[in-house]
Amino acid sequence: MAKIAIITCAKIRDTSCVGCLKCFKAAERKEGEFAQYDDVRIVAMTGCGDCPGLVMPKATLLMEMADYLDRDIDVIHLGTCLLKANKTAACPIDLEAMKVKLETVFGKKVVVGTHTY
Ligand code: SF4
Ligand code: SF4
User: What does the DSSP assignment read for 14-46?
Assistant: First the structure.
């Protein structure tokens, strides 16, 4: 069972991507980037902190709360919303650099993307 935390684009989530239904659907069906797991459970979601991207402090808070609540996180996914913001708008986050930074600081596998809908 892969326990997943997703970091989302604060501007897209619940605006053009409502209720995070797409990521929950893909996780349930093991589609998109979730196809790599035998079993998958989304245990946490948090926004990037809005532009210009406060991913590291938000991820730090998330990990602290996960520890406090005794919740394991195996993998951090950067949501497809973050990819879309990066490819189609002026999102300043360098996704590959962010992936390396998250992996280095938290010692977790980081996957760029979630669903393909
Ligand atoms: S891509 Fe996923 S995490 Fe991002 S807003 Fe859509 S459903 Fe939510
Ligand atoms: S555009 Fe980028 S920095 Fe701005 S809210 Fe979305 S993901 Fe965060």
Answer: TTTB-TTHHHHHHHHHT-GGGGG-SSEEEEEEE
